[in-house]
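Hi W.,

Here's what went into the run:
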Amino acid sequence: MISSPSIILVKPQLAENIGMVGRAMLNCGLTDLRLVKPREDHLGKKGIRACAGADDVMRSAQIFPTVAKAVADFNTVYAATARSRDIVKPVLGPKDCMAATIKAHARQEKVAFMFGREKSGLTNVDLSYADAIVTIPVNPAFSSLNLAQSVMVLAYEWFQHTPQADSFEIPDGTNAPKARKKDLLAFLGLLEKNLAERGFFDSVPDKRPKMVQNIRHLFQRLSLSHAEILTLHGIIKTLQKRKKNDKSV
Amino acid sequence: MISSPSIILVKPQLAENIGMVGRAMLNCGLTDLRLVKPREDHLGKKGIRACAGADDVMRSAQIFPTVAKAVADFNTVYAATARSRDIVKPVLGPKDCMAATIKAHARQEKVAFMFGREKSGLTNVDLSYADAIVTIPVNPAFSSLNLAQSVMVLAYEWFQHTPQADSFEIPDGTNAPKARKKDLLAFLGLLEKNLAERGFFDSVPDKRPKMVQNIRHLFQRLSLSHAEILTLHGIIKTLQKRKKNDKSV
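Here's what came out:
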């Protein structure tokens, strides 16, 4: 089993935010949530609705009376805060923090990320329990992040540093199998023939090879599926028909 | 002025979510929000409260009747979705998507990220307006992200790819100036003298140099500030005093 960091919320005010934190955590594979003196019952309607199915994270969340008790069994605690204070503590960005977390896990150490209450964040007293500060680089003119958003960004960055993310399969978008070259070439040949028969190249006969080449490049670039080639055949065929009410010619 | 991508929300259901999206956008320096057929008034109480001060983003948001109209002036539209569908479209992770966005901006092109409604995401019809899909790698067992969380992750990744993030100053934590070596050494000398006078090294006199070295390493590692050295002087002095009610000795 892969170790994952814990999330500690110090005196969160709204159950809804706790729920959104739970959801964000599970989105990124985190499951250990700790609450220091939450103001509202996180297992009430608002919290459970906001967690959107991450009920297990919510129900297994532990409640602590003090920060000291909540951090007791961790080797490293990172305090998430944007504020610079007159304290001597290392400050890391999310990526460096996660790289350090992965290394700590490899040493069998336990790591937690600690977040303050919605309105005012972590106090200097809370910060005295942390080894380092982790700061999310954001717009300096509007830097106050929603609690669950802060958790999301750190949890997301953590997930990107895990083997899980490496093995995360980004589908290549070619669910429909790409057409074989011979089908593509047959279509292109038919298109060229039809165009030639209708005088497409007549005004500039010497430019025909270059024009054909450009058309081939264009359709090649589309990485067409077999089904799409059939569609294009149908389009060409249809365009050659007369309009339904067209009495001309 | 640095170009930044736009955010298009297709048929968002809750004004509160639009507000949270606005907040997340401004947190990461994004300001152009477009809404396709929002169900609720995003400028109502819930939306404005949720945007937490990003009122300008909310008030300048444009409303469109169709996706086609909302995307009309963009060169590239990325659809944010986790679903794999039977469509032939490139799929990018957030980092690759942002790298491509930065390049597109350098070519003076306009880029948008499009998000679907909370419950059901983007439809296949919506997706037909997109150039590519951007997928956020998350826990495959619980991959449904809150709308504003999805926006936050992409906006955050975008911000990390901008020069703004490079110039974002992560404070080095040494707000209080680090002590000069002579003050540290004076303190270490005093500590050693006081320990020696009280018999700290008596039982193992030949190990004294090694013990002193270890103590020096320990305090060196702390990167003490001048104020902290004064505090340590105070601690040593105080520890040598008798307890207030101690009648012994």
